[in-house]
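User: Assemble these into one structure.

Assistant: Restating your components, then the assembled model:
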Amino acid sequence: MLDLRRIRSEPDAVAAALARRGDDRSSIDEVLRVDAERRAKAGQRDDLRARVNAISKEVGAMFRDGRKDEAAALQAESKAAGEREKALDTEVAALDEQRRDRLLRIGNLPSADAPDGGSEADNVVLRTEGFDADGYGPHQRVPHWDIGAELGFLDPEAASRISGAMFSMYRGHGARLLRAMVQLSLDRNGDAYEEIRPPTLVRTDTMISTGHLPKFADEAYHMERDDLWAIPTAEVPLTSLGRDQVFDEAVLPLRFMAYTSCYRREAGSAGRDTRGVLRSHEFDKVELLAYAAGAEQAIACQEDVLARSESILSDLGLAYRIVDLCAGDLGNSAARTWDIEAYAPGCDMWLEVSSVSWFSDYQARRANIRYRPSGGGSPEVIHTVNGSAMGWPRTWAAVVETHRQPDGTIAVPKVLQPYMGGLEVIGPR
RNA sequence: GGAGGGAUGGCAGAGCGGACGAAUGCGACGGUCUUGAAAACCGUUGGGCCUCACGGUCCCGCGGGUUCGAAUCCCGCUCCCUCCGCCA
């Protein structure tokens, strides 16, 4: 959610920033119109209340002094004022709701550092690591779904029998490999990030805080009976961990990580990336998240998350690249996002395995997470940063394809071997 | 699922129709004293909205009602706790 005061004081600058993400300024003008009306009405209401309060005080004094009879006229005036006040208050409440609803649907302002552009095509590749287009042998040009069938560690038929299309099932060493990768990234980041195992079914408020509602309700699974939502990412519970809290600046940045399943309806993507594990309604992810005091600290956190994700990919022996998302391709809540794409030689695709974003104070304002500045003064809204330490299925696919050997077996990367009971090679079952 | 209890400031906890944004204690901050510290003493110490400001207004879990006036009375809801039952 944007800062309303900023919209009021510099509407043109805000509109210009939103234009970079392709949003027109009508939403801003709408908010301002509702806001102006609300303020006018609220002012009138407050004046009436002030009158009622003053009268009550006087009446109270009269009662104490035994001048009850003098109070009648004042009581009548107060009653009338109270009725007008109530009517105005109803109007103000309605305007409040309208204002908030409009505000919640306006996206975040892109950082000035985010490149210009309207679509994916305008994203900027910042750098590419470990990639040699000609360095892959024919044995690595086998897509992971074929490898999965070959070695028996993927069972898409069983998955769809149980849950339908776009669910995956890992078996045997395939499942264990996935678990090893989860463990690896949790262990890697435990030095600075507190491990959290949050609930994965959350309330509506919690989904609103991160910006997943109200705008993207179609993307999420909703359990109507209990009015709970299945989280699309651990970012959701981790952000709301600090909801309505005020932290001392000295404890920031606070860093959390969580391993959870993530649930996405993927409405509208039926038929896209249907092979293998590239797109699934349910997948595992380890998420890193930080609460920061202000932009500078937040950007340092964002760089830290990026560096940590990168180091895991390179230790897994994968080629990857860092993509700076252009303003038009940014997620609704993000100010700046770096995607990490791992190269999967078998399907010959750059797979988005992590998305490291700085949300400025957009999410924290919705979640009402603040910090008290060390120098004194009123609480300020914190900044949030998060990124996948790794989105596992896609990384898994890249690992399996990259490390397929000429004999069809998979060489287990050294860093994962301790988590696989020392296993060095995965062969057929 | 059944029965009961509770929700007040950073925390603990009083208040149960008017002078209450709220006693008191703890904590935190500032000062006096001290070579320094502790102790003691004095003082300060929540947040939102409107306003250049003065000031106004709102917030005692949330929403409604009664009243000139509600933290306090009434109704509904949510959450938490305890006990019983059932259960991974």
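Chain A has two domains: 4-104, 120-426.
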